[in-house]
Automatic annotation (TrEMBL):
Organism: Paenibacillus taichungensis
Signal peptide feature range: none
PANTHER family: PADR-FAMILY TRANSCRIPTIONAL REGULATOR, TRANSCRIPTIONAL REGULATOR RV3488
Protein's name in the database: PadR family transcriptional regulator
Domain Transcription regulator PadR N-terminal intervals: 7-83
Amino acid sequence: MSIQIFILGALSEGNYYPYDIKKRIGKHLDQTDAKITEGTIYYNFEVLLKKGLIEKVETIQTENRPDKTTYGITEKGRHSLEESIYKVFQKFTNVQSLYAALVHLDKVDNQKIAYLIEDIIEKMNKRLEYIDSHTPQEIDLQEDLKDALFLMRDHAYHSIQSDVLWLQKLLHHVQRRVLKS
Protein backbone atom coordinates (compact mmCIF):
# COMPACT_ATOMS: atom_id res chain seq x y z
CA MET A 1 0.00 0.00 0.00
CA SER A 2 2.80 2.46 0.77
CA ILE A 3 4.15 2.23 -2.79
CA GLN A 4 0.68 2.95 -4.11
CA ILE A 5 0.37 5.95 -1.77
CA PHE A 6 3.67 7.22 -3.05
CA ILE A 7 2.66 6.72 -6.71
CA LEU A 8 -0.72 8.40 -6.23
CA GLY A 9 0.87 11.25 -4.28
CA ALA A 10 3.44 11.89 -6.99
CA LEU A 11 0.80 11.72 -9.74
CA SER A 12 -1.37 14.17 -7.80
CA GLU A 13 1.40 16.70 -8.40
CA GLY A 14 1.79 16.00 -12.14
CA ASN A 15 1.98 13.36 -14.83
CA TYR A 16 4.92 10.96 -14.74
CA TYR A 17 6.44 7.88 -16.32
CA PRO A 18 6.75 4.89 -13.99
CA TYR A 19 10.55 5.15 -14.19
CA ASP A 20 10.36 8.78 -12.96
CA ILE A 21 8.37 7.60 -9.95
CA LYS A 22 10.91 4.87 -9.25
CA LYS A 23 13.66 7.51 -9.12
CA ARG A 24 11.55 9.69 -6.79
CA ILE A 25 10.85 6.76 -4.47
CA GLY A 26 14.54 5.89 -4.50
CA LYS A 27 15.43 9.38 -3.29
CA HIS A 28 13.03 9.06 -0.36
CA LEU A 29 14.03 5.52 0.53
CA ASP A 30 17.80 6.02 0.39
CA GLN A 31 17.88 6.30 4.19
CA THR A 32 15.95 3.04 4.65
CA ASP A 33 16.60 -0.58 3.87
CA ALA A 34 13.68 -0.74 1.42
CA LYS A 35 14.53 -1.52 -2.18
CA ILE A 36 12.01 -0.96 -4.94
CA THR A 37 12.42 -2.76 -8.25
CA GLU A 38 11.09 -1.63 -11.61
CA GLY A 39 8.88 -4.72 -11.63
CA THR A 40 7.29 -3.65 -8.36
CA ILE A 41 6.65 -0.17 -9.72
CA TYR A 42 5.13 -1.39 -13.00
CA TYR A 43 3.00 -3.96 -11.17
CA ASN A 44 1.59 -1.25 -8.87
CA PHE A 45 0.92 1.04 -11.83
CA GLU A 46 -1.11 -1.79 -13.41
CA VAL A 47 -3.06 -2.36 -10.19
CA LEU A 48 -3.85 1.35 -9.87
CA LEU A 49 -4.80 1.53 -13.55
CA LYS A 50 -7.19 -1.43 -13.23
CA LYS A 51 -8.80 0.18 -10.16
CA GLY A 52 -9.36 3.39 -12.13
CA LEU A 53 -7.18 5.41 -9.76
CA ILE A 54 -4.76 6.47 -12.49
CA GLU A 55 -5.04 6.83 -16.27
CA LYS A 56 -2.75 6.80 -19.25
CA VAL A 57 -2.17 10.35 -20.41
CA GLU A 58 0.22 9.89 -23.32
CA THR A 59 2.23 7.13 -24.97
CA ILE A 60 5.35 8.08 -26.88
CA GLN A 61 6.56 5.62 -29.49
CA THR A 62 10.07 5.79 -30.87
CA GLU A 63 12.00 3.40 -33.07
CA ASN A 64 14.19 0.86 -31.34
CA ARG A 65 12.87 1.90 -27.93
CA PRO A 66 10.03 0.59 -25.79
CA ASP A 67 6.91 2.78 -25.61
CA LYS A 68 6.96 5.37 -22.82
CA THR A 69 3.59 5.92 -21.17
CA THR A 70 2.85 8.92 -19.01
CA TYR A 71 0.23 8.48 -16.28
CA GLY A 72 -1.95 10.89 -14.34
CA ILE A 73 -4.21 10.55 -11.32
CA THR A 74 -8.02 10.43 -11.60
CA GLU A 75 -10.50 12.05 -9.20
CA LYS A 76 -11.17 8.58 -7.81
CA GLY A 77 -7.40 8.28 -7.30
CA ARG A 78 -7.22 11.59 -5.41
CA HIS A 79 -9.98 10.40 -3.09
CA SER A 80 -8.28 7.02 -2.66
CA LEU A 81 -4.96 8.71 -1.86
CA GLU A 82 -6.55 10.72 0.93
CA GLU A 83 -8.38 7.70 2.36
CA SER A 84 -5.23 5.54 2.13
CA ILE A 85 -3.22 8.08 4.10
CA TYR A 86 -5.84 8.17 6.85
CA LYS A 87 -6.00 4.36 6.85
CA VAL A 88 -2.22 4.07 7.34
CA PHE A 89 -2.53 6.11 10.53
CA GLN A 90 -5.68 4.27 11.67
CA LYS A 91 -4.04 0.86 11.21
CA PHE A 92 -0.63 1.90 12.56
CA THR A 93 1.74 -1.03 12.91
CA ASN A 94 5.13 0.68 13.17
CA VAL A 95 6.80 3.98 12.42
CA GLN A 96 8.08 2.78 9.05
CA SER A 97 4.51 2.09 7.93
CA LEU A 98 3.93 5.87 7.98
CA TYR A 99 6.82 6.88 5.71
CA ALA A 100 4.94 7.11 2.39
CA ALA A 101 2.09 9.01 4.04
CA LEU A 102 4.46 11.54 5.63
CA VAL A 103 5.58 12.74 2.21
CA HIS A 104 1.98 13.63 1.33
CA LEU A 105 0.61 15.30 4.46
CA ASP A 106 -0.23 18.33 2.32
CA LYS A 107 -2.98 16.29 0.66
CA VAL A 108 -5.00 15.54 3.80
CA ASP A 109 -6.65 17.29 6.74
CA ASN A 110 -3.79 17.66 9.20
CA GLN A 111 -6.18 18.22 12.12
CA LYS A 112 -7.58 14.75 11.48
CA ILE A 113 -4.03 13.35 11.22
CA ALA A 114 -3.20 14.99 14.57
CA TYR A 115 -6.15 13.21 16.23
CA LEU A 116 -5.05 9.90 14.69
CA ILE A 117 -1.49 10.40 15.96
CA GLU A 118 -2.79 11.24 19.45
CA ASP A 119 -4.75 7.98 19.36
CA ILE A 120 -1.64 6.02 18.35
CA ILE A 121 0.37 7.62 21.16
CA GLU A 122 -2.35 6.78 23.68
CA LYS A 123 -2.37 3.13 22.59
CA MET A 124 1.43 2.95 22.70
CA ASN A 125 1.46 4.44 26.21
CA LYS A 126 -1.06 1.79 27.30
CA ARG A 127 1.33 -0.87 25.96
CA LEU A 128 4.12 0.68 28.03
CA GLU A 129 1.89 0.66 31.12
CA TYR A 130 1.02 -2.98 30.47
CA ILE A 131 4.68 -3.95 30.21
CA ASP A 132 5.42 -2.00 33.40
CA SER A 133 2.62 -3.68 35.31
CA HIS A 134 3.49 -7.16 34.09
CA THR A 135 7.10 -7.42 35.08
CA PRO A 136 7.90 -11.11 35.27
CA GLN A 137 7.96 -12.24 38.87
CA GLU A 138 10.53 -14.52 40.28
CA ILE A 139 9.44 -17.76 38.72
CA ASP A 140 11.09 -21.09 38.54
CA LEU A 141 12.86 -20.82 35.19
CA GLN A 142 16.32 -21.62 34.01
CA GLU A 143 18.61 -18.64 34.47
CA ASP A 144 19.26 -18.30 30.72
CA LEU A 145 15.54 -18.30 29.94
CA LYS A 146 14.85 -15.77 32.67
CA ASP A 147 17.61 -13.49 31.32
CA ALA A 148 16.25 -13.83 27.79
CA LEU A 149 12.73 -12.88 28.93
CA PHE A 150 14.01 -9.79 30.72
CA LEU A 151 16.07 -8.76 27.69
CA MET A 152 13.08 -9.18 25.36
CA ARG A 153 10.88 -7.17 27.72
CA ASP A 154 13.53 -4.46 27.95
CA HIS A 155 13.86 -4.26 24.17
CA ALA A 156 10.10 -4.11 23.63
CA TYR A 157 9.72 -1.39 26.25
CA HIS A 158 12.50 0.80 24.86
CA SER A 159 11.39 0.31 21.26
CA ILE A 160 7.86 1.42 22.10
CA GLN A 161 9.21 4.30 24.16
CA SER A 162 11.37 5.41 21.23
CA ASP A 163 8.39 5.22 18.87
CA VAL A 164 6.28 7.31 21.26
CA LEU A 165 8.97 10.01 21.34
CA TRP A 166 9.12 10.05 17.54
CA LEU A 167 5.32 10.13 17.27
CA GLN A 168 5.26 13.10 19.65
CA LYS A 169 7.67 14.92 17.32
CA LEU A 170 5.44 14.05 14.39
CA LEU A 171 2.39 15.28 16.28
CA HIS A 172 4.12 18.58 17.01
CA HIS A 173 5.05 18.90 13.31
CA VAL A 174 1.47 18.21 12.20
CA GLN A 175 0.03 20.61 14.77
CA ARG A 176 2.34 23.36 13.46
CA ARG A 177 1.01 22.65 9.95
CA VAL A 178 -2.55 23.06 11.26
CA LEU A 179 -1.69 26.43 12.84
CA LYS A 180 -0.13 27.65 9.58
CA SER A 181 -3.21 26.79 7.52
